[in-house]
Amino acid sequence: MTTPIKVPNMSGVDSFTPDPKFITESDFGESVPTGNHAEIIITGGGFSGVCLGGLLRRRGHRDFLIIDRNDDWGGCWLDNKYPGVACDVPSHLYSLSFELNPDWSHAYGRGAEICEYLKAAAHNEDLDEHYRPSTAMEEATWDPDNNLWHIQTPQGEYTCHFLITGSGHLVDPKIPDIPGIDGFPGTILHSARWDTSFDLTGKRVAVVGTGASSIQVTPAVAPMADQLVVFQRTPAYVMPRIDPAYTEIEKKTYRRHPDEIQRERDDHFWQAEALYGAMRLIPAMQEHVKKLTLNHLESLVEDPKTRELLTPKYTPGCKRILVSNDYFKAFNRDNVTLEPSALTSVEGSTVVSANGERYEVDAIILCTGFTVSQPIYAAHVHNGKGETLADVWGKGGAPTHTLAQRGFPNLFTVNARNTGLGHNSSVHIIESQAAAVVQALDYCHDTGRTVMEPTAEADKAWNDWLREWSRNTVWTSDGGCSAWYVDDRSGQLTAIWPDYAYDFRAQNGHFDPAWFDMA
Ligand SMILES: Cc1cc2nc3c(=O)[nH]c(=O)nc-3n(C[C@H](O)[C@H](O)[C@H](O)COP(=O)(O)OP(=O)(O)OC[C@H]3O[C@@H](n4cnc5c(N)ncnc54)[C@H](O)[C@@H]3O)c2cc1C
Question: Would the pTM count as exceeding 0.90?
Answer without folding.
Answer: yes
